[in-house]
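User: Sequence for Transcription initiation factor IIE subunit beta below. Tokens please.
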Amino acid sequence: MSLAASMQKFKSEMSDAASRNASSSRPTASTPARTSTPQPGNKRPRESATPASAPLPGGKSSSAGAEIMTHMVYAVQYLKDKFPVASTLPDILNFLSLPSDLQKHTPLIRRALENHDRIAVVPKHESPAGKETFRYNPQHPVTDADELKSYLASLPTAAGIPVRELKDGWPACVPALEDLAAKHEVLLLRQKKDNAPKTVYPDSPQFYVHMDGDFVDFWGKCKLPASEAELRAELERANLTPTSQVKEVKKGTIQKKEKKRVNRRGGKTTNLHMMGILRDYKK
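Assistant: Structure tokens for Transcription initiation factor IIE subunit beta:
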């Protein structure tokens, strides 16, 4: 038995057990239902909680809604496994094998499929089969190497794509990514523990310059000083000042600046610049 079938059987048994417990806990006709007694002081009676099997608006029960949402998980996984092939609603219902009490809720399942963010609805005029179909909508519309290169070129930024998001619609993408990286068509950021691809970035072979073999050999033979003391000696030998050299602070005589003394003259201040215009009333 597959995992999906086992999970469906377990959910069915749990639903039957819950319905039996709910029916056994309901008050009978001879036993009146318990009601809250009003307390003194004009206090309102405490309202009883709504049971899990109480009907929802429209005549639908919460247990039926929970069952529908559970089947939606299997429907999304079914469409994801068949991506990029689309499926009709009868095919999805046939895979779900709905029990008889949920078959009447087919319109609700259809509405849930149409409103799901991971499911795309293909209209009749766009479907090759001439029927309305449903297809899984991955995080990135990429299923092969050519689509990946085109999609990376169309991105507005160079932030890259996480490989785990790329596997949502292309599960077997790692071998193709390794091949593209060897051709310098993509750039891979890898994990440290297992060297597995973590993020993929756009790349191009034209960014790589061919180096002459003699230059590569010369570059490989150049060795850096083994210690900091040898590095400092090499820099001093080339008349270069090492950054680790202690700079000597020049000590000089500091001359104090004399503050200018402001002469404040006393006496009465008059408008001397307007003596020819104003009249003198001091007499």
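Residues 235 and 241 are 7 Å apart (CA to CA).
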